[in-house]
Task: inverse folding
């Protein structure tokens, strides 16, 4: 079975040099590989941050910070990190009060009934917090180091934080630079 020059396993000199009328297998393959790598890297590196604010509607508790997330599926994000005043760390999914650490920023209710959990300190006190939505309102479930627990109604606000370096723009800039370099090399080869 004879393969066409476009799919040849051993490129000819004309093919490698991009001579007129010869298929540019190597250049096309390289450009296709670069485009695929850029597309995959932009998806794999996609991470978003969201600013959040929690206020106890009965008073006594308030806090704010940043949630680091990765896109999980159809509009939901997995919270992978948290920072804020007094926050000591994110609790893994299933680690406290059935948390799943999912965020739904496009929905009216940005948290589900499992919510997200984190550890925090306030002065000498250490406690775990689970912020969730029961379908009607937001709540925070607390447990301190003495195993005292309480559930308080809260307000929970989340907004996308601005990213200092937008990932898709960086990939686009890299891709256009590679295409310009390939065009320059091609011009030099044809000038011979």
Result:
């Amino acid at each position: 079975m004879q393969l066409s020059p476009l799919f040849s396993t051993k490129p000819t000199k004309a093919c490698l040099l991009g001579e007129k009328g010869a298929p540019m297998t190597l250049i096309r393959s390289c450009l296709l590989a670069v485009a695929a790598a850029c597309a995959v890297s932009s998806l794999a590196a996609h991470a978003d941050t969201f600013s959040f604010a929690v206020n106890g509607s009965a008073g006594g508790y308030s806090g704010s910070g940043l949630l680091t997330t990765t896109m999980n599926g159809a509009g939901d994000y997995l919270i992978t990190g948290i920072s804020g005043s007094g926050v000591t760390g994110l609790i893994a999914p299933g680690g406290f009060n059935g948390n799943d650490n999912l965020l739904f920023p496009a929905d009216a209710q940005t948290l589900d009934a499992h919510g997200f959990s984190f550890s925090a300190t306030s002065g000498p006190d250490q406690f775990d917090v689970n912020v969730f939505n029961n379908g009607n309102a937001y709540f925070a479930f607390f447990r301190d180091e003495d195993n005292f627990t309480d559930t308080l109604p809260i307000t929970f606000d989340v907004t996308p934080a601005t990213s200092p370096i937008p990932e898709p723009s960086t990939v686009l800039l890299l891709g256009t630079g590679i295409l310009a370099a390939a065009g320059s090399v091609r011009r030099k080869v044809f000038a011979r």
Notes: The chain has a mean pLDDT of 77. Residues 5-44+165-191 form one domain. The beta strands are 47-56, 62-71, 77-84, 87-90, 102-103, 116-122, 125-133, 138-144, 149-160.
